[in-house]
Write a structure and sequence with these properties.
This protein is α/β, with parallel strands linked by helices. Helix content is 33%, strand content 17%. Strand 9, helix 6 and strand 10 form a beta-alpha-beta unit. Helix 7 crosses helix 8.
């Protein structure tokens, strides 16, 4: 497997300083973490390393500070939450590089953990500046990356540092992402079905093209369906359409036909005159969409059709909600797909969801446990599915190397 990377399990870490990149980019309000999902997601790697008596140095970004320290983006609230989850002290350094950080890392005992202040307080982080990467490398004797969500960016803490700090291996969260997404990309059990939706074709065209080469069926909902329907000459009313992508949509349709990929477009949709739910809505055949109406969800007949195309699937990748699911009246298609997909894992299928909004929708459905994998990396999972090399992944050592 192309994505088989060495992990912390192959790491000799006892009494050694382990510099680990994590994704602690969590929401903070009034100095407290309001959703600790991402911290919790890194806990298995953190606990494993501490149990192995490593001296753990954690680094992360938080938010988008502009070029320097900014109290709004401090990781201090994360330190508190982490200490709470670990029921242990978490040492702190006010800077992620330099004398303060080096002294804090040197002071660590076996099985102790240190959290560094926000990496992005230094603009050199996002520029992948070599001397900044070297400064980070001085804090560890080896390197672990457990931050899949930033692996598509070649930053100093995800890529640059691995030139100076070896071995560089994957954490458990990173490994899980690579296992599930890598399988979907390289070795899927069939039938393999992709469900695509969301707002725009333009941001997803590379995913569509890449998946078209792999899947047996492609089910299309969300706003992007209307660009396809318009390309077929159907009325779309005031639906969200990308007119500059009509030719692209025609190409995808032709390509699917040529490759024998079954591309399924909705036959009905939920129509309304207001995307915010402030006007009445009704389901109708897509051909009957009025000039003042917009399609805000797939319709019930389409959902039933999608369900029948999903039922025998052995691999399913889903990206992009089927409708404006943030409005409860337009959430039925998205929740319906979540429901159908949630029944497949028990039948031996691998079900993977990628994309920030799609994962949020599945969590909202309450069925998250019944999916094989919800990808934590929105942009990273999309780039992975596009077949792009993620610099933060490529930088890690291959298993067997
Ligand atoms: P993801 O984050 O999972 O990759 P996207 O960001 O591409 O998904 O798309 C999510 C957005 O698409 C949601 O905010 C949803 O409201 C919107 N959307 C889905 N269907 C429609 C539609 N028919 N019209 C307008 N917006 C839509
Ligand atoms: Mg999104």
């Amino acid at each position: 497997m192309r994505f088989a990377k060495k992990t912390v399990q192959q790491l000799d870490c006892a009494s050694r300083r382990v510099l680990m990149r994590v994704d602690f980019n969590v929401p903070v309000a009034d100095g407290a973490v309001t959703d600790d999902t991402r911290i919790a997601a890194a806990m298995s790697t953190i606990r494993y390393l501490l149990q192995k008596r490593a001296r753990l140095v954690l680094c992360s970004h938080l938010g988008r500070p502009k070029g320097g320290p900014d109290a709004r983006f401090t990781l201090r609230p994360v330190r508190e939450r982490l200490a709470h989850l670990l029921r242990a002290d978490v040492a702190w350094a006010d800077d992620c590089v330099g004398p303060v950080a080096e002294a804090a890392a040197a002071a660590l005992g076996d099985g102790q953990v240190l959290l560094l202040e926000n990496l992005r307080f230094h603009p050199e982080e996002e520029k992948n500046d070599p001397s900044f990467a070297q400064a980070l490398a001085r804090l560890g004797d080896c390197y672990v990356n457990d931050a899949f969500g930033t692996a598509h960016r070649a930053h100093a803490s995800t890529e640059g540092v691995t030139h100076y700090l070896k071995p560089a291996v994957a954490g458990f969260l990173m490994k899980t992402e690579l296992d599930y997404l890598g399988t979907a990309l390289e070795d899927p059990k069939r039938p393999y079905v992709a469900v695509l939706g969301g707002s725009k074709i333009s941001g997803k065209i590379d995913v569509i093209t890449s998946l078209l080469h792999k899947v047996d069926r492609l089910l299309i909902g969300g706003a992007m369906m209307f660009t396809f329907l318009k390309a077929q000459g159907k009325p779309v009313g005031r639906s969200l359409v990308e007119d500059d992508r009509l030719e692209l949509a025609r190409q995808v349709l032709a390509d699917a036909a040529k490759r024998g990929v079954e591309l399924v477009l909705p036959g009905d949709c939920v129509a309304s005159t207001a995307p915010d739910g402030s006007a009445p809505s009704s389901a109708k055949a897509v051909e009957l969409l009025g000039p003042d109406e917009m399609g805000v969800d797939i319709g019930p007949a389409t959902l039933a059709g999608f369900a029948s195309k999903l039922r025998d699937a052995k691999t399913v990748v889903w990206n992009g909600p089927m409708g404006i699911f943030e409005v409860p009246a337009f959430a039925a298609g998205t929740m319906g797909v979540a429901k159908v997909m949630s029944e497949l894992k028990a039948r031996g299928a691998v079900t993977v969801v990628g994309g920030g909004d799609s994962v949020a929708a599945v969590q909202q459905s309450g069925l998250a446990e019944r999916f094989s994998h919800l990808s934590t990396g929105g942009g990273a999972s999309l780039e992975f599915l596009e077949g792009k090399v993620l610099p933060g992944v490529a930088a890690l050592e291959d298993l067997g190397a």
